[in-house]
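Service request form, structural biology core

Requester: graduate student, group of Dr. S.
Request type: structure prediction, single chain
Budget code: on file
Notes: please return the result as structure tokens.

Sequence provided:
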Amino acid sequence: MYVALADNQDITRAGIMYLCQQMNDVVARQAIDKGELIEQLKHHSEAVVVLDYTLFDINDIAELLILQARFPMVQWVLFSTELSSDFVKQIIAESARFSVLLKESTMNEIRECLQFALHHQRFICQRTAEQLLAPSVSRNDEEVRLTPTETEILKDIALGLTTKEIAERRFSSFHTVNTHRKNIFRKISVNNAHEAMRYALRAGLVDSAEYYI
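Core staff response, request fulfilled:
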């Protein structure tokens, strides 16, 4: 079985590599970006992908679902520090091939998740399961706490700028802006740029006249 590690954190990669080496007939390789991940999946159509959705080179849930549709036999382990309940609910509703694992999970839980994925079964870690089962709590826009940088990037998103354009304007890397973008979407509970634009208009971060110029 082939495991593709779509995770840019060295310590996380080393840990998953170590666990994979302990399993029979499992080969694990790193994918440094989305392009390399796609190339690997072209040759390993039934692979397990361990993906840090928050930090890796994938823009949003829509792009992730496109990849899942393109490689329907791949098992996806979303291995991140934090994922919103809305995101998790949507992703697991789309396909049983998505597992969810938080980086605070115990070693036993991480090992169990990998075993489930290798046997084409879904796994949801305990904390995420508890989060999904907890009563829904309404949240007003005023309660959202964006950093000054996140606020500026949200304004740029609302005005139609791409991640690449925002990075160039801010003299930042694509990866840095993409990480901010995902954190913003998580905090304001949206899944795409159109929903982010609507949120920014409601919150008064951009003027409707400015948006329609």
